[in-house]
Amino acid sequence: MFWKRKARWICCGSLVGVTLYVLFCWFEHHQAINLTEAFAKSLNEEVIQVASLPQPISPFRWADYVETRDKVYQGFVDLLREERPQSIPNPSSFFEKLSGLYDPPGKIRYRSWEKIQNSPWVKRALTTEGVKFYYWFARFPVVKSVNSGDGIHRVEFMDIRFLLPGIRTPFVYYVEMDDFGKIQSEGFVGDRKGT
Q1: CA pseudo-torsion sign 55, 49, 81, 166
Q2: For 127-144, how does the pLDDT look when each residue is reduced to its tens digit (9 = 90+)?
Q3: Are residues 103 and 135 in the same domain?
Q4: How far apart are CA 150 and CA 45, in angstroms?
């Protein structure tokens, strides 16, 4: 609008810049997925899928996932980092906490979660329409917890894809039922409108 005479060059330059950035991110993703596949091969488990998903702030940071028949593994890598980050005793800012998650290539710490716990309450919760829809949306769903007390049994589900350990655990879906398996409430944790 302000540089009408140079608009064509600005548009062409922007298109070239975006294309180069996408190609660069594709190359970085290729490196991250190779690391994930190497970890998957080291497991003595049947691998269902592997993925490397981009992380905020830097094109060099990736979250790596390996799904097996029973577990989901998650690790974080910074492709530029050469050494593990030094732990900060009480990280105060979001960026300090975030920086501590990412390991250098070859030194990635993978955490694992059981996909399904052997519990009648989990089996009952998996039959509800809310959990079926949640599993349709979630890419790496796991049972976060099963708690029972005072005749109420609560099962929580989470999608590992959105988990940043020690920082945030969003999109946790819960189902509460009584001793007879009748649903008392369900919905997202923090959503007071649960049904």
Answers
A1: positive
A2: 999 999 999 999 999 999
A3: no
A4: 38
